[in-house]
Design a protein that fits this description.
Layout (H helix, E strand, L loop, with lengths): L2 E5 L8 H14 L4 E5 L5 H5 L17 H7 L3 H4 L1 E2 L5 E4 L8 H5 L8 H6 L8 E5 L6 H9 L4 E6 L8 H14 L6 E9 L4 H13 L4 E7 L2 H5 L7 H4 L4 H17 L1
Helix pairs in contact: 1-12
Length: 261
């Protein structure tokens, strides 16, 4: 059975993309097949996995992106790209996705187009990990509607980290009540933790009060290698496998696997 997780937080810089690409890569090391779906017009997951950002880099179907599936009905089987990591596949994004919410507004199935596009390819994968933009618009709604196994919310241990989380939970509840009754919060990941500062500990304590049952025990530290890896089109496991960031994401993913059991 395919597990589908959406990584969401409308606050930018929370670590959604970092979680998606690194947890996805680690899962392939555990012999799981993984599909990453990049729903962010900034295409950071696409470039972090080593693919170009632009939809015009085409040879055949190579230039197709998630935009072509959501708007033009292109089958995901034609959009999926292989990567340098065995068992890790990608549905890429591009800047053209920035205008997709305006185009979706007039479509009768505007909230469920991603779920319908995913359905024919799910049997190829053990996991689908969906990266979302820093907003609660139709792209994020599509991701939440497509999710069977819950939302993972990265929260950075910095000032104003909890700003907007109430609105995110409200949106999740609305999607649960009206579009996807399977939707839950699968977990909350504390990211960019700096043990040298009191602020990081105060934020971590506050997040645990806000989500008393969902916070993962594993905390992702602030780590320069995690920041560097995407610029080389690498995950932390191919760029710096001995780093604190790699240890954190391997432990975090193992914790997710244990929760599933």
């Amino acid at each position: 059975m395919t597990r589908i997780y959406t990584f969401a937080n409308q606050k930018g810089g929370a670590g959604k993309t970092t979680c998606v690409v690194n947890m996805g890569d680690y899962l392939t090391g555990r012999r799981r097949s993984v599909l990453v779906v990049d729903m962010d017009p900034q295409a950071n997951a696409t470039s972090s996995i080593g693919m170009g950002r632009h939809s015009d880099e085409s040879d055949g179907d190579a230039g197709l992106t998630v935009y072509d599936a959501l708007i033009d009905g292109m089958p995901f089987a034609s959009v999926i790209r292989t990567t340098r990591r065995p068992r890790l596949h990608l549905i890429p994004s591009s800047p053209s996705l920035a205008g997709v919410e305006v185009e979706l507004v007039g479509m009768p199935d505007r909230e469920t187009r991603l779920r319908k596009a995913l359905a024919p390819v799910l049997h190829h994968y053990d996991y689908v990990l969906i990266d979302t933009p820093p907003s609660l618009g139709l792209l994020t709604i599509n991701a939440l509607t497509a999710t069977d196994d819950g939302v993972i919310i990265p929260v950075q241990c910095e000032y104003l980290a909890l700003e907007g989380l109430g609105q995110l939970i409200h949106t999740i509840n609305l999607v649960h009540d009206n579009l996807n009754p399977r939707l839950t919060v699968a977990g909350v990941v504390l990211t960019m933790y700096d043990a040298r500062t009191r602020l990081s500990q105060e934020v971590a304590d506050e997040v645990k009060r806000f989500f008393p049952e969902q916070v993962f025990n594993t905390i992702v530290p602030r780590n320069v290698r995690l920041s560097e890896a995407p610029s080389f089109g690498e995950t932390i496991f191919t760029y710096s496998p001995e780093s604190a960031g790699a240890l954190a994401y391997s432990t975090l993913t193992e914790e997710l696997l244990s929760r599933e059991e």
